[in-house]
Amino acid sequence: MDRDGRGPGRRSDRLAGRDFLMGGTFTVADADLFALTGWGQAPWLTSYDRADIQFDDLHNLRAWYGRVRGRPAVRQALQAEGLR
User: Fold this and answer.
1) What does the DSSP 8-state code read for residue 17?
2) N or C: which terminus of the chain carries fewer CB neighbours within 10 A?
3) Taking the CB of residue 72, how many other CB atoms lie within 10 A of it?
């Protein structure tokens, strides 16, 4: 989280008009954010840690999460780890 507490919001803002954090290509930054996003909570999110971090109104993050979670390699990795 950023010092001002807007970490998730900043990430969501950065995703506006982009498929992935760095633009049109999935990078390690996306993999890292995907893992961290799993700590939070939102109706559209599969949470693994249920920390008190709410992502409900972060629409760009929601769309990005769906794109990343839909990647075959991500689905395969989640399955291998016993995560859904």
Assistant:
1) T
2) C
3) 7
Residue at 13: amino acid letter: D
Q: Which residue has the tokens 């998730």?
A: 8
Please say whether the beta carbons of 27 and 20 come within 8 A: yes
Query: Over the stretch 30-71, which tens digit does the pLDDT of each residue have?
Result: 999 999 898 888 999 888 887 888 888 899 999 999 999 999
Three-class SS state of 36: helix
**Rounded Cα–Cα distance for residues 21 and 49 (Å):** 23
d(CA 7, CA 3): 8
- For the beta carbon of residue 61, count every other beta carbon within 10 angstroms: 23
